[in-house]
Amino acid sequence: KYASGFMERLGNYPEFVQDRRPVIWLHCVSVGEANAARPLVDGLLSEFPEHRVIVSTTTRTGQELAKKIFAGKADAVFYFPFDWKFSVRRALEVFKPAAVLLMETEIWPRFIHEAKIAGAKVAIVNGRLSQRSFDRYSRVRPFVSRVLNDVDLALMQAENDADRIKGLGIQADRVEVTGNIKFDQVSGSSDAALTEHFRNRFRITAEKPLIVAASTHEPEERYVLKALEGVLGHHCRLMLVPRHPERFHAVEALLKASPYTYVRRSADESHNDKDADVILLDTIGELRSVYPLAEIVFVGGSLIPHGGQSVLEPAVEGKAIVSGPYTHNFDSVVKEFLKHDAIIQTGEAPDGFQISERLHESFTLLLEDRGRRSALGQNAAGVMAKSGGDATPRTIRSLRPLIMGISE
Q: Is 141 exposed, middle or buried (0-12, 13-18, 19+ CB in 10 A)?
């Protein structure tokens, strides 16, 4: 993933013309953080119209999405530099940020230190810190504590995130709980045209409910296909959405060896699109547009000890969500969904066969019971409605003294 934008990562950026407006640098690692930052960027531009916003990402997929969704909003979208002294200093010299906002506890020691030396305020926004990450950082707590000493403000999603980052040594008066910005997502009307394109191109209907397997990791596609044996093609259709683009070809090879018909989103349109058992979404930044078409959404990264991907995007569309047992990356969110019967989470299993069996049970239950699907989706949308709406304004309010203190 570091091959893309290599020269930029070394600090070689196109000319960035400075004016009198202070620069706010927002760093989003990948697609998830870029999507979550949509309301934050809008809020920053509205609250601080005399400032400029620039956005960096680490991954290629995040870069491509950020350039699309922040076009006309961000004054620059670019790759985050390697965390080396010379590349970081080059980047800071080019963009001269007055404030740096790091999404979701991205701790880059050299960058944070050099940003402080350069006079920038540094804040963590929408911060989260899982127990696993806390345990890992605790092994080098004195070092992490020195790094966090250069952070002016840590705006965390929940109390347990705040407690953990304070446990790593940041001063307690620099930590606030502002909620999860991802809960502030709304069903995007900007994606409506693409949603209808998908509906018509692939002839998505209620007769064969669409299951979307979102952000899958190796070997989750195999588990999902195994779980749908006997029903896929007859009673439902499947859209596979691998998390990483470099796996598109491997997943296609898996489908070629399967008994199912399949089509690729990136291929030219054909009559096969309307009847294929499986649709491979081998494009970037379009997953949000297919959620409204789904009856069931399996959220990947959760059948393996990766820690899961976000369940919030399908939840805002009111979809029935299925997850595997490994969701520690989103522990507090999943617990909230479980509390309100807004997600089905499979139990742990010792081998691939049992993983698929448990997934099969969840899929079959939802395919056979439309009422259960509907209730699960309504509960998910309810959690979003109850929890969302105020995290972004709270974040902006907390950032205001830090940001306005820059330009005064």
A: middle
Whether the bond into 219 is cis, omega within 30 of 0: yes
Closest listed residue to residue 105, CA positions, set 63, 166, 45, 188: 166
Whole-angstrom distance, CA of residue 193 vs CA of residue 199: 10
pLDDT less than 70: residues of the chain: 1-3, 186-190, 406-408
Query: Looking up tokens 């620069």, which residue turns up?
Result: 23
CB-CB neighbours of 3 under 10 Å: 7
Model confidence over 163-181: pLDDT tens digits?
Answer: 999 999 999 999 999 999 9
The angle formed by the CA atoms of residues 254, 358 and 299, to the nearest 5 degrees, is 60
Count the residues in the chain.
408
Considering 8, 33, 64, 336, which one is annotated as catalytic?
33
The whole-number pLDDT of residue 272 equals 97
Residue 33 bears catalytic tag? yes
Q: Cβ(26)–Cβ(101) under 8 Å? A: yes
Six token digits for residue 207: 């007769």
Q: How much is the CA Rg of the chain, to the nearest whole Å?
A: 22
Helix count (H) and strand count (E) of the chain?
18, 14
Q: List strand residue ranges (DSSP E) for 217-370, in order.
A: 237-242, 262-264, 278-280, 296-299, 320-323, 344-345
39 and 116 in contact (C-beta within 8 Å)? no
Expressed in percent and rounded to 5, the helix, strand and coil fractions of the chain are: 50, 15, 35
Q: What is the overall mean pLDDT for the chain?
A: 94
Cα 405 to chain center, whole Å?
31
CA dihedral 40, 46, 47, 48 (to 10 degrees): 100
Rounded distance, CA 187 to CA 206, Å?
20
Distance of alpha carbon 211 from alpha carbon 260, whole angstroms: 15
Read off the tokens for 353: 């066969």
Strand partners of residue 238? 211, 278
How many Cβ atoms sit within 10 Å of the Cβ of residue 230?
Answer: 10
Under a CB-based contact definition with an 8 Å cutoff, are residues 64 and 284 in contact? yes
Q: Which residues pair with 79 in a beta bridge?
A: 57
Q: Which runs of consecutive H residues, i.e. helices, occur in 236-311?
A: 248-256, 287-290
Q: Measured on CA atoms in the order 161, 162, 167, 170, is the torsion positive or negative?
A: positive
